[in-house]
Amino acid sequence: MDALRPLIVIGSAVLVTLAIGWATDRLLRKADEQDHETPLWGLLRRARIPYQLVLCSAMLRGSYDQAKLLERHQTAIGRTLTLVLIGSAAWLVIRIAGAIVETSYSRYARVHRDAARVRRVRTQVELIMRVVSAIVIVVAAASMLLTFPAMRAAGASLLASAGILGIVAGVAAQSTLSNIFAGLQIAFGDMVRIGDTVVVDGEWGTVEEITLTFLTVRTWDERRITMPVSYFTSKPFENWSRGTPQMTGIVYWHLDHTAPIEAMREKLRDILRECPAWDGRAHGLQVTDSTPNTIQVRALVTAKDADDIWTVRVTVREQMITWLCAEHPYALPRVNTADAVLPAHWARIPSQDGVHRRAYEQPRTGRG
């Protein structure tokens, strides 16, 4: 009977845990089916495993003393069950907190249509969850350490040296602490958000992840640039998503002086009408500079965001060059290797020193 007692206690605890877990999961599933607007119940179902671990370890921890199971290893078993209970409880708290925070964010995103505000809240939510997880893990680890008598006995000496250790740790972790405070400043200062289009060190990309210590930017060619968050609080950077995401793009051409500017304006309108990425706000084409060999022609186009402005710019550049090559090849830059053809009313007049000079010859009127 003594040999069967541990098996009976453990088996009963496991069966009760599975039954309670199954019943709780059924209730959460039914609540999720009745209320599709909130994801809370579906997210809480992800906490089933830590929930069952808490139940099982709590029941075994409370019953093994009265059942007098394995008295020779009573202390080790009790401590092990306590550690499992603390760890699973911390896991459960993190899952429940994540479900509540994610549900709050989903409701906010569903009500508010401003994409910039939604991205800002998303950034704050993720950083809050990281802070909560870190606090829970630290508290759980400290609670586990306090279950050992040696740790409790050393508490007085640890507290006595806490001042010196705090100074040393502060000096050693100065950069880490600065990054943590910079991450909180970014989250609640609304400097940069997840999903923003930024330009850092000449690289254009989208903010993909923000943590308390680093930030990841996904570039247009799918590279990931990871940098400390303190970079964004100490150096200037471009945030194309700040305010409204609408953008104005510029396209340049270097052409011959004979380029048909008015025809290019009409062609630009035709190209933009057929380009879905153009938002229809504005467009324009002007000659912005000239050199002895070429002129600089600039086109202004608009789009609703950074991705579309890139599409509009490359479309306008390619189709305009193709049209010039086919319809007006003389407008392309070229090197002149022959004298210019003079009009009929210009003539070369020889001078006494033998040098020919150009002079304007009055057109004849036909009178004798």
Description:
With 368 residues, this protein is of the alpha+beta class. The protein has three domains: 108 residues; 94 residues, SH3 type barrels; 85 residues, Alpha-Beta Plaits, CATH 3.30.70. α1 packs antiparallel against α3, α5 runs antiparallel to α9 and α11 crosses α12.
Per the principal axes of the C-alpha atoms, what is the gross shape? elongated
- Number of domains in the coordinates? 3
Q: List the uncertain runs.
A: 155-162, 354-368
Spatial separation of the terminal alpha carbons: 146 Å
DSSP strand count: 10
Structural class by SSE content = alpha+beta
Q: Topology as H/E string?
A: HHHHHHHHHEEEEHEEHEEHEE
Output the number of helix runs: 12
Radius of gyration: 37 Å
| Helix proportion | 55-70%
Main pleated sheet: 5 strands, antiparallel
Topology:
Blueprint: H1 4-34, H2 40-44, H3 48-67, H4 74-111, H5 115-146, H6 149-153, H7 155-160, H8 162-172, H9 174-189, E1 197-200, E2 203-210, E3 214-219, E4 224-228, H10 231-234, E5 238-239, E6 247-255, H11 261-273, E7 278-290, E8 295-303, H12 306-327, E9 346-350, E10 356-360
Antiparallel strand pairs: 1-2, 1-5, 2-3, 3-4, 6-8, 7-8, 9-10
Helix pairs in contact: 1-3, 3-4, 4-5, 5-9, 11-12
Structure in a nutshell:
The chain is of the alpha+beta class and 368 residues long. It is built from twelve helices and ten strands. It folds into three domains: 4-111; 150-243, SH3 type barrels; 247-331, Alpha-Beta Plaits.
